[in-house]
Write a structure and sequence with these properties.
Pyruvate Kinase, Chain: A, domain 1, five-stranded mixed beta sheet, 27 helices, single chain, eight-stranded mixed beta sheet
């Protein structure tokens, strides 16, 4: 969509290279991304604002994230207000927008669906409530608003199954309340339903698949998931999909789990006392309940109900204390003020959430360096987290990204970083960039096992010159992520596990006496004189000491076993980094090429050294 390069309905050639170009398919399943309207609301709205105002995407994103996330407060508050429980609406809205996962997912300049993923379903629920319970003369208006909200929600997020359940709740609740259907009601139902038919036809099957997977743990696998099943499951590494304990779930609502319990009980009380009015909230509440069964990301949907229920109990208490409406208003005002204080307490108690851009300025500068210093038809070979950012700032295709990390491509990228032999790294790059997933699919369908495919690739059976200018890109965030990268890269197809990477980068290290360095943030002492690492449980011998100063690297073998220590300076010489590694990770291409900038010139050429922000290598066409 930028500069006329992207068009709706066409393959996205910038992502998932080269399969967007090859249009890789498995039966009727497209394995390449396409530009679509549905599910791309965040991109569409930023692009529209950019075209109207001329503002940069960065400037728009700087403001839009907090503007859009704040909209979540409106429908939740009014739902409580319309049910004679304003405190429920206030606390529900504040807890929703202050819950840990919501804050993490709507962080500074984080252009993501979650900005409005609570606003749209709660807005649809509010209009549904008003449609059913407001006076007849306004029903047509609310029917139109329900329909418009549903369409916008689908364009924003693209989940027809959620909208199907919410629209079903409208019809069911309305029939319960009215107990009759006239031509007028049929017309109103048509206004709500008919404009959604272009996508709702997918809803039943999508809903069935989601229920079987998330509720019963019976995954309805696609053809590609079945075919690729021998490769490691990348989703285990994604934090928002990790299953939480009940206590952890409750701590992700109110930070005090006891408040969370009280709040959820309060919402259940609301359901029993106002069951007709609560029907429209039940689909969203059901998604939130999945927090106890499935991934952590569902706590974002549960948090509003903990707050709503807490406020509903307070309003119920006020009505019990006094029947005088003027006194009730005073008490509710007091509770509302107390809620503001509570919100501040919740906000300040979440110390592990710091609002920072996902791609900071120095990293963006290096991404733009790639744009200015590499051929336009180049492709980037790196881990998936910054895939979209490279598309935007570098304007280069990437091998895989956050929308395609579930395929074997992610395994091959991880494998290339984890191996110690640069020739294997080159052969893996050649295989993927020349053949994409098409050759992997053909081999698997012909009966070749995943393990054997990898062996054939690394033996050079598919060796072919790399026609596309290809660049290996390492970024500083990958040091912390190398645990999972190494796990997947060392995956054993027989035992079905790998070796977690252990590159420890302490942030607070300082000398305490001659030959001794204390790293405060991890609580260890590095004794270079005795060649040991002192930890709380004892000492660990140092196997190898590697010191890099400028372009000179000295390696000192000390013991046959133990942990390795690396001391390296940044490119500008402004600081020195101490790293603690297991031997296998020391020998990995990731460590050698990124941290030490030590590489084999037969296969790679160093073109940018901005360690620890970014290091870029051009992959040689052939050897």
């Amino acid at each position: 969509m930028v500069d006329g390069k992207f068009r709706i309905g066409e393959p996205d050639k910038m992502r998932f290279y080269p399969d967007g170009i090859l249009k890789t398919k498995l039966k009727d399943e497209k394995l390449y991304p396409e530009y679509t309207i549905s599910g791309n609301g965040p991109s569409l709205i930023v692009y529209a604002i950019h075209k109207i105002t001329g503002l940069s995407f960065e400037r728009i994103t700087w403001y839009i994230v907090y503007i859009l996330t704040s909209l979540t407060i409106i429908p939740i508050f009014f739902y409580g207000y319309k049910n004679d429980s304003p405190t429920a609406g206030i606390i529900g809205a504040l807890i929703a927008t202050n819950s840990p996962l919501f804050l993490a997912r709507t962080n500074l300049m984080r252009l993501d669906h979650d900005m409005l993923n609570l606003f749209f379903p709660f807005t649809l629920a509010l209009f549904s409530f008003l449609f059913t319970f407001e006076r007849d003369k306004r029903r047509l208006l609310y029917a139109v608003l329900c329909s418009i909200t549903a369409i916008m929600y689908y364009i924003w997020y693209g989940h027809s199954n959620i909208i199907l359940v919410q629209i079903s709740a409208i019809i069911i609740a309305d029939l319960i309340v009215r107990r009759k259907i006239t031509k007028k009601e049929l017309t109103e139902y048509a206004i709500i339903i008919v404009p959604q038919l272009w996508y709702l036809y997918e809803g039943p099957m999508s809903l069935y698949s989601q229920v079987m997977t998330l509720v019963f743990g019976i995954a309805s696998k696609t053809s590609s998931e079945k075919l690729f099943s021998e490769f490691p499951n990348i989703f285990m590494s994604i934090s928002e999909l990790q299953k939480l304990s009940p206590k952890e779930v409750l701590e992700n609502l109110f930070t005090n789990p006891y408040f969370s319990v009280v709040g959820l009980i309060g919402f259940v009380v609301f359901i029993f006392q106002r069951w007709r009015e609560s029907i429209f909230l039940l689909p969203i509440f059901a998604i939130g309940i999945l927090s106890f069964k499935s991934g952590a990301r569902f706590t974002m949907y549960l948090a509003p109900f903990a707050g709503f229920g807490f406020g509903y109990l307070l309003d119920t208490l006020v009505r019990y204390i006094t029947k005088d409406e003027s006194k009730q208003d005073i008490l509710k005002a007091f509770l509302s003020f107390s809620t503001l204080i509570l919100s501040v307490m919740v906000q300040t108690s979440i110390t592990n959430i710091v609002s920072t851009p996902k791609a900071y300025s120095t990293l963006v500068a290096d991404m733009k360096w790639i744009k200015d210093n590499t051929p336009a038809q180049s492709a980037i070979w790196t881990w998936w987290d910054y895939g979209y950012a490279f598309n935007l700032y570098s304007e280069r295709a990437n091998v895989h990204d956050g929308g395609s990390q579930s395929t074997p491509k992610t395994y091959f990228v991880a494998r290339s970083f984890a191996v110690s032999d640069p020739e294997k790294g080159w052969l893996i790059s050649s295989f993927i960039t020349n053949y994409g997933l098409k050759r992997v699919i053909d081999l698997l369908q012909s009966g070749v096992k995943a393990k054997d495919i990898v062996e054939k690739v690394e033996k050079g059976n598919f060796k072919k010159p790399i026609g596309t200018p290809l660049y290996w890109v390492f970024t500083g965030d990958l040091i912390d992520k190398f645990g999972w990268i190494n796990y997947f890269g060392t995956y054993n197809f027989k035992t079905k596990d790998g070796t977690p990477g252990k590159i420890i980068l302490p942030r607070k290290c300082y000398p305490i006496e001659k030959g001794k360095i204390f790293c405060e943030d991890i609580g260890v002492e590095i004794d270079l004189a005795k060649r040991v690492i002192n930890v709380a449980s004892g000492t660990i011998p140092i196997r190898k000491l590697i010191v890099k100063i400028g372009d000179i690297i000295n390696e000192d073998f000390i013991n046959d076993k133990g942990i390795d220590i690396e001391i390296t300076d940044t490119k500008d010489g402004s600081r020195t980094l101490f790293l603690i590694l297991d031997p296998q990770q020391t020998e990995s291409l990731f460590n050698r090429m990124f941290i030490l900038r030590k590489y084999d010139r037969r296969f790679f050429e160093l073109v940018l050294d901005d360690f620890p922000v970014m290091v870029v290598y051009r992959v040689k066409e052939n050897y």
